[in-house]
Design a protein that fits this description.
Largest sheet: none
Oligomer: single chain
Number of strands: 0
Mean pLDDT: 75
Low-confidence stretches: none
Order of helices and strands: HH
Structural class: mainly alpha
Helix content: 55-70%
Radius of gyration: 13 Å
């Protein structure tokens, strides 16, 4: 049950990131990727990237 709850929590976190429409500062792509990876790792989500 805890695993299921965590999965929903992870999905909610990812949804919040992708749906965020607030104001933001312009960032170069490398800094944005590093931020995203750090953000996910801090929440114990393994970052994976599909090409």
């Amino acid at each position: 049950m805890e695993k299921e709850k965590r999965k929903e929590s992870d999905e909610d976190t990812i949804r919040q990131i992708t749906e965020y429409e607030g104001g933001y500062l312009s960032l170069d792509k490398d800094r944005l990727v590093l931020f995203a990876v750090g953000f996910l790792e801090a929440r114990k989500i393994e970052p994976t990237f599909d090409k």
